[in-house]
Specification:
The protein is 49% helix and 12% strand. Helix 8 packs across helix 11, helix 8 runs parallel beside helix 12 and helix 12 runs antiparallel to helix 13. The chain is built from 15 helices and 8 strands. The protein is mainly alpha-helical.
Length: 397
């Protein structure tokens, strides 16, 4: 492990100055030949008082002792921090240096939020994922308040669980929140903020619960399709179409909002949608709309291509909050007792595909599952498929 080196630099930008002109002193933090940082010290002196050979203010400066003490204290503070990281098995990086000098070195949630911003800038994470993680951090702050890295221990998990139970969160939600907290703690560990032995999740098994897959029955889907659009305001009609499109394609709400027109191709076989999913590492999805459920999703897309020729996305921009409010209205209008969500639309598509095709690989391709086991769940629970198989049996028992 290579240790960082430190030196003071006068007039870093090399401006031409006279002996009596003042210029700032910076602390150069040298990581490698291609990576270095210059930190302002807040000290400015005249050119004649800089000792280039010693790399310090000259002893002739009237306040030499005070300046020397101020500068060395700044250097020693950062160097002590670096040594503490090395003792924990980590090392100083430009990112950690920035965290230290901006005063966030002890705030775990500030570290987590900063990591999200950095990941977004480097395009390693989507805006939707950043929004989800920031929302989770907001929940964590309400649950445990301000915490330092030294506060990360077993009692942290206990405090989180108490908060989640009081708020009556479902177990699947609690599990997902713990996974996110675990992720940020692991990142803090990797970057040298936290000793690996102090990770409270080493001896804690996250309970993800059982996620209930609720889908619309054919009659309920038909009730939505049959709603009188002439009495609906424009935004409600558009949410209905967007929801039905998800029922026929399994597209997630985030991908629906971002679905761009340049992802639509007109072919001799009709409209083809090809895009990379926003969730996770991104999965390539190809939907031949003309062949999905008798071309129902193709008709919806073509309708919006004709309605809104001057926007970049297939569907007009709308917030998830407005979509969810509109879905409640649509459920009431259609006489559906279930709480409509885009996840329900996705499960409806998976269930319908299982009922009609009994092909898990097709379900995997259409829904963009990363694991065939996920697709097999729809096959196992397909009531219609089971009924048809039973009806076809000749019971000569």
């Amino acid at each position: 492990m290579k240790k960082v080196t430190y030196s003071f630099v006068f007039n870093r930008r090399g401006k031409k100055i006279t002996a009596d002109e003042r210029a700032p002193i910076h602390l150069e933090v040298y990581f490698s030949r291609t990576t270095r940082r210059w930190l302002p010290t807040g000290v400015e002196i005249e050119s004649r008082f800089w000792d280039a050979k010693a790399g310090l203010p000259s002893r002739k400066h009237p306040n030499y002792t005070g300046l020397y003490q101020l500068l060395t204290n700044k250097k020693n503070e950062i160097e002590s921090y670096e040594l503490s990281l090395i003792n924990q098995g980590g090392e100083l990086s430009p990112e950690l240096l920035n965290s230290f000098v901006t005063g966030h070195k002890d705030s775990f949630f500030a570290f987590s939020e900063r990591i999200l911003e950095d990941e977004l800038k480097t395009q390693h994470i989507s805006k939707g994922t950043v929004k989800k993680y920031k929302s989770s951090i907001g929940i964590f702050k309400k649950a445990v308040g301000y915490i330092k890295f030294s506060d990360i221990n077993g009692s942290l998990i206990h405090k989180l669980d108490i908060y989640f139970v009081k708020r009556r969160y479902e177990q699947t939600t609690i599990g997902k929140l713990h996974v996110i907290m675990k992720k940020f703690i692991k990142l803090a560990e990797r970057k040298g903020f936290l000793d690996m032995k102090k990770n409270p999740y080493l001896n804690y098994k996250v309970n993800m619960g059982q996620s209930e897959r609720v889908n619309l029955e054919p009659a309920e889907l038909k009730a939505l399709e049959s709603l009188d659009r002439t009495i609906m305001p424009t935004n409600l009609r558009e949410v209905l179409d967007r929801f039905l499109y998800s029922c026929w394609t399994g597209i997630r709400i985030g991908d629906s909002i971002l679905l761009a027109k340049d992802k639509i191709k007109k072919t001799t076989d009709g409209l083809v949608v090809e895009f990379i999913t926003e969730k996770g590492n991104g999965v390539r999805i190809v939907h031949h709309l003309h062949y999905l459920f008798d071309g129902k999703p193709e008709k919806i897309v073509q309708k919006y291509l004709d309605l809104y020729p001057n926007i970049d996305t297939v569907f007009p921009k709308i917030s998830e909050q407005e979509i969810n409010r509109s879905l409640k209205t649509l459920a009431y209008m259609a006489g559906i007792k279930k709480t409509l969500t885009f996840h329900m639309a996705r499960h409806t598509c998976g269930t319908a595909l299982a009922d009609v095709t009994a092909n898990p690989y097709l379900i995997m391709d259409i829904l963009g599952h990363g694991d065939i086991k996920t697709s097999m769940i729809y096959i196992h629970r397909s009531a219609e498929r089971i009924k048809r198989q039973l009806q076809a049996i000749m019971w000569n028992w």
